[in-house]
Amino acid sequence: MLSIIEYAVTAIVCIITSVVIQRIYVKEFKKSKEITSVQGIKWFGLAIFVWGIGALVNLIFINFTEVSNKLVIYWGVAISLANSLFILLSLPSIEHSKSRGLGVRLVERFTTKEFIILFSGVLGMIAFVFLATSFTNNELSINFTWLIDIPISIFVAVSLLFELNKAFSSRQMKFMYLPTVTLFVLIIIAVCHRIIPQDQLIELINQEFWALVGSITSISFKFLFILLFSILLYSWKFLSEKEEQQNLANNLSLENRKIKKELEQFSIANESHLDTIKHLKKEIRVLENTNKVELSGRQKEVLGNLAYGGLKKSYSELANEMNISVDGLQTHIHQIKKILNISGSGGKEQLIDFAIKNGFLDFSTLKQNN
Q1: Which pLDDT score, from 0 to 100, does residue 117 have?
Q2: Which one of 112, 118, 200, 305 is most buried, counting C-beta atoms within 10 A?
Q3: pLDDT on residue 32
Q4: What pLDDT score was predicted for residue 205?
């Protein structure tokens, strides 16, 4: 009766849990196919599913068939080895910043396909030797077959303990150390229950109590494993979303700095354009002021004669050719400078340049005479 309850509870809980986990895996896989953690969800789900199928088949063996205890043990060993394989494959997905354990390094040395072939091949050969020995030798205890699985189960339990503790430590969840150590202890107790023949403990421990310990331990460590995995999955999901938000914030910050830099460049370019516009406006005002200048006919003649021969002739020569005094010429030039707002050295050259650019050469009497 106790075995039926154990197998029924294990089958129902593990199968339902594995289906839920696989749905989570499919959903996460569609979002990001390359993340190792997503692949780990699949292997964790398969490990739990194997427990459920193993318990379901055992339930069928007990209630609907008449099979030998040896066959039940053989099936149990096969299920335990398959579960160990899937847990080992899931270990690299337990993310943390600390050094990896031996189990993870061993898995990562091979591809998934290579590791499955290697694991199955080596343990298949060992299992064949054990099964052949126990099947033909009736004097051996049926628990002898569990020796195939015991070293693997202990190795997986130790590897799982270290990886879980490192992961919870990296996520500031050191309070989870106690449940992980409890899981390890329960696995060790379950292992001892498998290998120690019940009939050899009859004088030391009550058989019903020993069977109860085995059932409780078996159910407890499976449920605790599921609980720890759920917490690990939730914390991974939470951290993944947090990292995604942080990456988004970093990208927005980077984009913001880029926009600010572009705005600074635009501002500099705008200032340059504004300076150019101011300069053009200044020149336009000068031209407008020039167009507003009103000169007398004599002043226009003086500017025209300067444009015609001012660079080659002195004021005296120009005044002589215009039949006016030098003082009279200089008076006209002084008035013109005042009107055009020309001052400082090089005044004559400025007048000549202004006269040439503004077409006063047409008013030159010297040009007309020549």
Answers
A1: 92
A2: 305
A3: 66
A4: 63
Q: 181 lies in which domain range? A: 2-255
> Tell me, what CATH number does 70's domain have?
1.20.1070
Residues 6+ apart with CB under 8 A from 330: 315
**Do residues 358 and 299 lie in contact, with contact meaning Cβ atoms separated by under 8 Å?**
no
Q: Give the count of alpha carbons within 13 A of 47, CB side only.
A: 24
In the prediction, which pLDDT does 237 show? 55
CA atoms within 13 A on the CB side of 58: 29
User: Which residue, 220, 103, 98, 120, is CA-closest to 169?
Assistant: 98
Positions in the chain short of pLDDT 50: 243
Contacts of residue 364, defined as CB under 8 A and 6 or more positions apart, other chains included, come to: 301, 304, 305, 307, 308
Residue 167 is predicted with a pLDDT of: 80
Centre a 10 Å sphere on the Cβ of residue 290 and count the other Cβ atoms it contains: 13
Element (H, E) at 334: helix 326-340
- Give the global pTM: 0.57
